[in-house]
Each structure stands twice: as C-alpha cells, then as structure tokens.
From TrEMBL:
Belongs to the malic enzymes family. The active site is at 130 (proton donor), 201 (proton acceptor). Residues 297-560 form the Malic enzyme NAD-binding domain. The keyword Cell membrane does not apply. One of its GO terms (molecular function) is NAD binding. This is Malic enzyme.
Length: 604
C-alpha cells in the first residue's frame, strides 16, 4: 500500500510542476567543465547557478549573468516567433525546414529546454518534428546532416552487432524505434535518410508518454536502397548498394534483434516504415519472441478503428450498428490491411457474427482497383480481404475507386494508399450519394502532399455534413455563416506512445493483440458524445499526455489480465493487479518524465 501512496504523491508533484516546481532530485554527472556544456543532457546554458558553476568547474566558461529557465524558455520562443515573422511569404518548404533547424539546434544543445518547449507547445511543434516536416527532413537528410543521432547498423556490420550495441553510451534503454528506410511515410524508399522517422517518433514518445530521453534509441538498419536517385547522389550517407533481399535481409534483422535483446532484454522495439512484405514478415517472426510491435500495421489499425467507431457515434447510431457500415479502404499495404483486420475483428465481436460474415461490409482497393478473389497473382496478405464474386453486387475485379464508391455508396471512404489527391472531385462528389447522411472521409496518408484529399476539398465536394480525418494536420475549414468543418488528425501518434509506456510499466515481455485492442478501445471511448456529434473523433494533440496516460493504463491492465505483467522497478505484478482503473491511470501518469533542471552533482 505504501507504494500506492508514493506514486500518488509523485503525481501530485507532476500536476503542480511548471516553472515553480518542487525541487527535483540531484543528478550525478561524471564530467566537469566544458564537457558538461557540450553534453545536451546536462547542459543548462546560461542557467547554471553560480554554486554549480563553482562545483563543476564552469566558472569563467559562461557569461556571468545567470538566466532562469523561464527566461531561457521565453528567449527561445521569442526567437521562434521572430523566425516566423522573418520567413513570412517564403515558400512553405523553406519555412518548415527553418523551423525544424531552430528546434534541432536546441535539441543538440540543451535537451531539457528542448523537451520543455516541445511538451508545452506540442500541437504547434508536432508538425515540425513529426509529420509533415519530418518527411521533408528525411528527403533532405544528407544535406541537413550536422551530427549523428541514434545508431546506424548496416549490412556491412554483419557479425559485429552484438559488440556494436555496447557502443551506445546509455546503460539503460526502454524504447527503440527501428526502420530500414524502405517506406518512409508515403515518400517511398529513402534508405539511410529514413532515420528521421525513428528520431521524430521518439520525440513524440518523450513529449506524449514522458519516456526518459536518456533511455530512447532511434535505429537505422541500412541494408542498401533501391532509390536510384540516392544511389547516384554523391552526398548520400548510406550504403551505396541495392537493398538486401530474402534470407540475407532477414539475417541482418535477426542479428540486430538478438543484439538488442542481449543488452537490454526489456527494451521495446517499435518497427516503423518497413515496406509491406517485411513489415508483415518481421511482425510474424518476432512478435512471440521479443517485446515488439509494428506501428504501421498495429498502431494505425487501432487509431483507425477508434475513428470508425467514432463515426458510427457521430452518425447518431449505437455501436451495434458498426456491422452495418459499408467501408471502402483504399490502399492494401501494411497500414490498410492492418486496419481491415482489426476492424473486421471488431465487427465480429460487436455484432456477434463470424469474421467471414463481418467481411462482407468491407471493400478493398489497391493500385489495380477493387481486390477480388478473381485477381491473378492475388497478394496472399490481401487475399483474406478480397471480395468474393457472389458478394460483389455488380462490381468486378479491378473496379476503380469512383466505380466502387458510386455502386457501394459507402458510409466511410478511408485512404491509406500514399497517393496524394486520389480522392478527387469526382470521388468526393460521389460520396454525397452515401447511404449515410453523415459520411466519413479519412485521408490518412502522410505527409500532407500524399493525403488522398485536402480538408477543404473534402468539405467542398463531399458536403458540409461529412466527418473528416487526415493523417497529417490540416486547419479546420471555414464553411461560412460561422460554421466550421472540423478536421481530425487520424494518426497513430494517439496510440503508439501509450502502447510503449503501458507495456514498459507492465513489464510484459510481449505485446499481444489483447493489449493492442485495449489501446484502441480506450481511444475509441475517450471522446464525449457531445464532441463526437459535432464531428470531433479524436482529442486535441494538446491533450496527448492525458490520452497517453489512459491508453497506457488500458495496455497495462490488459497485460495484467493476460498474466503477462511482471512489474517495473519497485512496483511488482501483485501491486499492479491490485490497482483500480483510476489508480493505474495515475500510476502511468506519475511515471512520465518531465523536463526540469536537476542540481548536478559531480562524481568521479
Ligand atoms: N495516419 C497514420 O497514422 C498512418 C498513415 N500511413 C500512411 O499510409 C500510406 C500507406 O502506407 P503503407 O500501407 O505502409 O504503404 P504500402 O506501400 O505498404 O501500401 C500502399 C498501398 O496503396 C496502394 N496504392 C498505390 N497506388 C494506389 C492507387 N492509385 N489507388 C489505390 N491504391 C493504391 C498500393 O497498391 C498498396 O496496396 C503512407 O502514406 C503512410 O504515410 C501509414 C501508417 C500510419
Ligand atoms: C504515421 C505513420 O506512421 C506513417 O505515416 O507511416
Ligand atoms: Mg509509419
């Protein structure tokens, strides 16, 4: 019981902390002098108090005046606002990269201040450190490169990874985001430049889940690239060879996973932006052996399911009506198929029907049109969702999006194709004939340029009564007469931080379908009916820590129910299972790292 009191107290501190926070505990540092100023984890810039300057050999290495954390914060935000003013009228790309640079410079210099401005301004800064700007950063990575971040394992490191993993300076790692750069957002194969994605995702982990930034590790597995332009670019920083395939490829991933597991057996590995064949294959290969999940397949599925269930509520129906919704999914890749699988399971669960029966309401379209069992060389991953000729109601193999939408008149049109603009005017106008008076359009592909349609076009062509969601942020749409078309951001960022934190605190060695389902259900029930009825399906990004506390608790409780929770730190499995729902949420919240300057104590 004393432990319950302890974490409840910790959470009260968390709530009352801002600039006038309770005095944080000391932090041991093994360096002195300029080495501290050059270490972004310990550096406080002009914020070192005079006593600390004396203790740490910093006297004379800084201008004499001590600037408080609040002043440093304001100074940074003022610089950021000046940059906004000074870049007005310049192309979006230039402005976005300038904003990313100023944040990145702070990240490189002073992590405490960086994460504080990120957490406090997450809605404004998420589009810079995450989608859409992170896509631009990856595309321009070789030119933007100043210093490395994370670890790089290449095909040339075969046989060395077990020792290389010990080159990482931190003793503990909780969360790893791993990519091979083969499908970066909707931008395709960006090779080693894809490292920007694990970096961005882990920044979201710190901001949304309070994962300690000293315990995160972005990883690039460079197995070559098939992007000819990059191979010919003399500044390209990755291996200049075609991607490894087959067993050669898998042996690299295997070696990496074994190395990670050997050094940090409890670290969670999030697979991110792998091309579809490897996304599915690696999930299948590792999910029962390692604590891992695939965010594009599983995180996206949960967020989409929450949005689909929200749509049913927004239409004024009860959840049992989910089974009657006609849903067209455009994109049969890792994301689209993950969504279909989870949504069909949910229909079967909610309606009490078989999964085979549940499938009849779903239509899958890929680059070759409607996917049916009549297709030659039907992709085995898409086969379970292919339409059977007897259920096709006049549709044929390969029908186009417009043909399917006109015939099916779906309640929901959901895009995960990576192709910008394919929900064109004709398709959107056809959605006016939907059987629902409040149809939903989910243009979930990233970054913004790859969204299946813009928010403005969706409301303009499909009608003002639609529910709209996109993967990257768009502004709400002014519909005139004081009316606003609400834009939801249907992005896996609402789930992956909670999946990671909940799993970490549970101490589970696996991430199960049950834990992922609990995460999705938690997000689905997060919004109040009042908001849902006005088309708001997801909470504001501003409340991402609250969302993550709830999602994390749901994941943790699912792990407890499945008897997988082994506990974390001093809190063991029995204490976890004794917590009620509210206590679990508080426990998760109280374990979120929050950036404050700690007094530094030197130890040799
Ligand atoms: N909002 C979110 O949280 C997430 C969004 N995404 C986005 O989803 C997109 C797809 O990701 P993955 O499924 O991993 O990619 P993928 O490459 O595995 O699959 C793309 C699919 O789209 C289909 N496609 C391509 N052109 C098409 C066309 N003209 N018409 C219809 N279908 C077409 C392909 O046949 C393929 O089935 C990316 O843009 C990614 O950024 C992915 C994960 C999460
Ligand atoms: C959001 C995300 O994971 C993607 O677009 O791939
Ligand atoms: Mg992704």
């Amino acid at each position: 019981m004393w432990k319950l009191v302890r974490y409840a107290a910790a959470s009260n501190i968390a709530r009352s902390r801002r600039f006038s926070a309770a005095i944080p505990g000391p932090c041991i540092v093994h360096k002195r002098g300029a080495d501290i100023l050059h270490d972004p984890w310990f550096n406080k810039d002009t914020g070192f108090p005079l006593t600390e300057r004396d203790r740490l050999g910093l006297r004379g290495l800084l201008p004499p005046r001590v600037i408080s954390f609040e002043q440093q914060y304001d100074r940074f935000m003022n610089s950021f606002r000046s940059l906004e003013n000074n870049t007005q009228g310049q192309p979006d790309k230039v402005v976005s990269l300038a904003k990313w640079r100023i944040l990145n410079r702070l990240h490189d210099r002073n992590e405490t201040l960086y994460y504080r401005v990120l957490i406090d301004n997450i809605k404004e800064f998420a589009p810079i450190i995450y989608t859409p700007t992170v896509g631009l950063v990856c595309q321009n990575y070789s030119g933007l490169f100043r210093r490395p971040r994370g670890m790089y394992f290449s095909a040339k490191d075969k046989g060395e990874m077990m020792s290389m993993i010990y080159n990482w300076p931190a003793h503990e790692v909780d969360m790893i985001v791993l990519t091979d750069g083969s499908r970066i957002l909707g931008l395709g194969d960006l090779g080693v430049q894809g490292i920007g994605i694990p970096i961005g995702k882990l920044d979201v982990y710190v901001a949304a889940a309070g994962i300690n930034p000293q315990r995160i590790l972005p990883v690039m597995l460079d197995v070559g690239t098939n992007n000819q332009k990059l191979l010919e670019d003399c500044l390209y920083l990755g291996l200049r060879q075609p991607r490894l395939e087959g067993e050669e490829y898998l042996s690299i991933i295997d070696e990496f996973m074994e190395a990670v597991h050997a050094r940090w057996p409890k670290a969670i590995v999030q697979f991110e932006d792998f091309q579809m064949k490897w996304a599915f294959e690696t999930l299948e290969r590792y999910q029962k052996r390692f604590c891992m999940f695939n965010d594009d397949i599983q995180g996206t599925a949960g967020v989409a399911l929450a949005g689909l269930l929200g749509t049913v509520r927004a239409q004024g129906q009860s959840l049992s009506d989910f089974g009657n919704q006609r849903i067209v999914v455009v994109g049969a890749g890792s994301a689209g198929l993950g969504v279909l699988k989870m949504a069909i399971q949910a229909v079967a669960r909610i309606s009490g029907c078989s999964e085979i029966a549940a499938k009849s309401q779903f239509y899958l379209i890929d680059k070759d049109g409607l996917v049916t069992t009549e297709r030659n060389n039907l992709d085995p991953a898409a086969a379970p969702f292919a339409k059977n000729p007897r259920d096709m109601e006049g549709l044929t193999e390969g029908c186009s999006i417009i043909e399917v939408v006109k015939k099916v008149k779906p309640h929901v049109l959901l895009g995960l194709s990576g192709v910008g603009g394919i929900f064109n005017e004709e398709v959107l106008k056809a959605m006016r004939e939907s059987v629902s008076t409040k149809p939903a359009i989910f243009a979930m592909s990233n970054p913004t340029m790859n969204a299946e349609c813009t928010a403005i076009d969706a409301f303009k062509h499909a009608g003002e009564n639609i529910v709209f969601a996109s993967g990257s942020p768009f502004e709400n749409v002014d519909l005139g007469n004081g009316k606003v078309g609400h834009v939801n951001q249907a992005n896996n960022m609402y789930l992956f931080p909670g999946i990671g934190l909940g799993t970490l605190l549970s101490g589970s060695h696996l991430i199960t379908d049950g834990m992922l389902q609990a995460a999705a259900e938690c997000l689905a029930s997060y919004m109040a009916d009042e908001d849902i009825l006005s088309g708001i399906l997801y909470p504001s990004v501003d409340s991402i820590r609250d969302v993550t506390a709830e999602v994390g608790a749901a994941v943790l409780r699912a792990a407890v129910e499945e008897e997988l929770a082994e506990g974390h730190g001093e809190v063991g499995p029995r204490e976890l299972s004794n917590m009620c729902k509210e206590e679990t949420v508080e426990y998760v919240r109280s374990n979120m790292w929050y950036p404050v300057y700690s007094p530094l104590v030197h130890e040799k």
